Amino acid sequence: MDGGPAAAGAPRAASAGRIGGIAAVLVAAILWGTTGTAATFAPGAGPLAIGAAALGIGGLLQGAVALPALRRQRVALRRRPGIVLAGALAVAVYPLAFYSSMHLAGVAIGTVVSLGSAPIASGLLERLLEGRRLGAWWTSAAALGIAGSAILCVSKMNDPAAPPGETVLGIGLGLVAGAAYALYSWCAYRLILGGVGRAAAMGSVFGLGGALLIPVLLITGAPLLESPGNFAVAAYMALVPMFLGYLLFGFGLTRIAPSAATTLTLCEPAVAAVLAVVIVGERLNPAAWAGLAMIALTLAILALAPHGPESERRPGAGGGHGRERRVRAGGD
């Protein structure tokens, strides 16, 4: 005997919940993809001010929202001060390097290099700290990503309108941003794996990281108050992509698997590149587009590659599955 209307409604409810989760993650990724273009609408503000405002204020707001969870799990967090501090330092470094990379190398290239290098840096962290075997898929993706970054660098250096030194430094800072992104994601995941709830893990890392950025904001942020436009950009960055975007992603993670969420966020660098060309007016030569395509393919390989025995960690190495390394935010 079937369960009647209630049983029939359960699959529909599950399907609706999954669709809601997919929509939330997609909207979050699109919002994140707007940050580089939004920063160009505050030309009087430097990248350090923009980055400090975005994640400084956004991080503090995340910490404030997570206060109940932080109180409940303060004992567990106190047992792991090193991981919390390392994650917070990475959160503080990430926006400074990310927005500086876009300022020097351009929105499209800075964004794609930063996001494209993060999964590679995550793999290296997991190999060094947890003994994870990287396997042929990861090696192929890493080689493709490195080649794509090199092509981007050469293509920009051959552009007479782009100072070669700035391009190289911008791409280098993009790699730093990718490493910082990977580190704070790894730290948050280790906290979650150790029994700390997702809200408390992300609230501690982002809240402390945001606090570390406030002195940078106080030193560099005066231009953000010089015009309503600059202030609006700072408010948008902090409240919409950094705060609302993370909340949406966390909502999505309660309804779809982290691996599915990771795949959906591949639209973030695509959105950033399209907006940079269409709105900012950046022009990329064919070689640069080829480099961007190679990095996009790197992300696709890492997200969609099979995760069989070759990607497992050694017995006793601990750690979570590689597909879950892009931890953003979420529930308790």
Automatic annotation (TrEMBL):
Keyword Membrane among record annotations: yes
Q: Where in the cell is it found?
A: Membrane
Matching InterPro entries: AA-Vitamin_Transporters, EamA_dom, EmrE-like
Q: Which UniProt keywords apply?
A: Membrane, Transmembrane, Transmembrane helix
Where on the tree of life does the source sit, at the highest rank?
A: Bacteria
Name the membrane topology term: Multi-pass membrane protein
Cellular component, GO annotation: membrane
Spans traversing the lipid bilayer:
21-42, 48-70, 82-99, 105-125, 137-157, 169-193, 205-225, 231-249, 261-281, 287-305
Decide whether keyword Kinase is in the record. Answer: no
Q: Which family does it belong to?
A: Belongs to the EamA transporter family.
Q: Which PANTHER family match?
A: EAMA DOMAIN-CONTAINING PROTEIN, INNER MEMBRANE TRANSPORTER
Write the protein's name.
EamA family transporter
